[in-house]
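Aim 2, interim progress. The first record below pairs a target sequence with its structure tokens.
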Amino acid sequence: MSCWQRGSNVKEYMSQNPPGATFFLCLLTLALSFMVLSSYNYSHTLPNPDIAQDWNTLLSSFSQFHLCEKENASSAFYTSLIPPLSSTQKMDQKTSVNTTRHPSSVTVVHLHVPLTVTSSSPSAMLKDIGLFTTLTASQLNLGDKEPVNLALEILSEDSKHICLTISAPTNILPLNLFQPKCSASETNITNIPVEATNQLPASSQTCYSLHFKSDPALTVMLTLEEQRVAAQHLVEVAVCLLGVCLILCLAASLKNNVTRRDFLKVEDSQNEPLIES
């Protein structure tokens, strides 16, 4: 009977104090939301919010450019900037990203990425060719004016992926991920030096456009330990909020009891005769 009475007291208090009731419902909703987020965190893999730049960002920035062929440019100069894949590839079974680190803190990375290439010239052959160019880190949203050498190998056996080779300072490149290996091609690759531009030129120069679709495999995800810690913090906050809600309920029930008791005392004193007969 006491619990029923206290429940009635809480109901009466909320009906008479809309601001307090609104505050209580907000706290309760927030606590339940944290519990749901904690459950979702346990059952789903989430991206790491501390990683501002990943390979999706880099490839998305790179795909905004048009690669136009340079006239009278030597392909030997550009190929010397990036070592051939066959000479730098490491057959490491523990990782699927081929990386070569040089003493000068420059990293060469070979990635099999979901990039497709189209040409402005109908007669251009989009197979067994290599496109070489150099950009600055700021153009790829990676840093300042550090040079970034890029090479794209377009092979005939895969039209939805290309082999992307990047040579850049180690400190500006995103974290390496477990991507499919970029195997050395057995066919002869025609190397074409290109220049990255934001707009297509008006001349009859052959240009190549890049098309990129975001790939979840290129996103840095939270580790299991990081997910466990995040879920634990959400549960702790939810329990604290539920505790505050419980304290508010107890305070509301006790306050109504005291108020009713004071009201009855005043009513009894008013009913007493002022002059005894």
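The second target in this work package is listed in the same format:
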Amino acid sequence: MRSLTAEEYVEAFKSFLDHSTEHQCMDEFNKEEMPNIMAGLGNGKSTINVLGVGSGTGEQDLKMIRILQAAHPGVFIDNEIIEPNPQHVAAYKELVNQAPDLQNVSFIWHQLTSLEYEQQVKEKGAHKKFDFIHMIQMLYRVEDIPNTIKFFHSCLDHHGKLLIIILSDSSGWASLWKKYRHCLPSTDSGHYITSNGITDVLKRLGVEYRIYEFPSGWDITECFIEGDPVGACMMDFMTGTKNFLGTAPPGLRQRLQEALCQPECSSKKDGRIIFRNTLSMIVVES
């Protein structure tokens, strides 16, 4: 067994998105809460500075940019992006090129990890401040989570806001990682972090935050169908392992499949197995 490469991770992640309501869940948050959050940004400035950390292919970024445009018509938006994956950066740029409504938005991409960006900023000694920073579903891939949050929080301007989207402690992932960790292979290279881990860091930093929970589901039915290619790809995402179903010892595979069916991880709906993918949206004040 071996860990997924960056390219394989992209492919496995796509199979997860195709079968989950993750993006619909974020859309709900965008619709219900984001306009109010965005309205308080910028403090009357003619330019609002935005930083996306681990922005991936940019779909969520552009949705938020459009909410910001609607909340602050005519204001210029300076949008910087930190994203280490070259495939993601290329896809993001293509998305921007096809968008007709981003005239008052500038884009700068930093093809770096969040740590590389932090080191670069510290070497330069110049600390650009941002009105809005978002870290969506990316802290699992960061080495030092407390210091990463502390650094990006220090990049906020007065009245700025930091948005962290992370898996909730009421999600199936939290149960899987805490109670059934022995069912996961050592090749899984991500960090098992959920919202409580993040709010612990924020409490230690002494910063104000609000937390919103939005339910989301992931249809993992195919993971239990022998030889199903979609199920195999989703299991690779679940375990961070290449060809998990084909290379894992049968005992481990069986233990994981049994854990996934436990009520604290998933529920049955119309004969389908739906894994709980509940998200926490944490809005941190500067």
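Residues 199 and 282 are 8 Å apart (CA to CA). This observation will shape the mutagenesis plan for the next reporting period.
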